[in-house]
Amino acid sequence: MIEYPQHWTCEVIVLRLEGYLLRTIPLGEALAVAEHLEACDWCAQLVTLKMDQGLRPGGPEFPVGEPGG
């Protein structure tokens, strides 16, 4: 398990991941998630799996052109 940035463990990232992908979390949290994803291969792979499930720009849960998109 990686804790980077400080106090941002993989468990915290998993809890924030959907909000990060849907762009519904505050910018400071999104930046911390992005930093963690750059450092952690496991969490980065989880992002890929979530995106394959439809959580991506233009997907049904994340329409382009609406708030957060």
Describe the protein in words.
The chain is mainly α and about 70 residues long. It has one domain (about 1-69). Helix content is about 55%, strand content about 0%. It is built from 3 helices and no strands. The longest helix has 13 residues, at about 10-20. It starts with 9 loop residues before the first helix and ends in a 17-residue tail after the last helix. The model is unreliable at about 60-69 (pLDDT under 50).
Q: Can you lay out the helices and strands and say which pair or pack?
A:
Layout lengths: L9 H13 L4 H13 L1 H12 L17
Helix pairs in contact: 1-2, 1-3, 2-3
Quick structural gist:
By secondary structure, the protein is an all-alpha fold.
Record keyword descriptors for this entry.
69 residues, mainly alpha, 55% helix
Helix content: 55-70%
- Count of the domains: 1
C-alpha termini separation? 31 Å
- Rg, alpha carbons: 12 Å
Quick one: biggest sheet?
none
Shape: globular
**Tally of extended strands?**
0
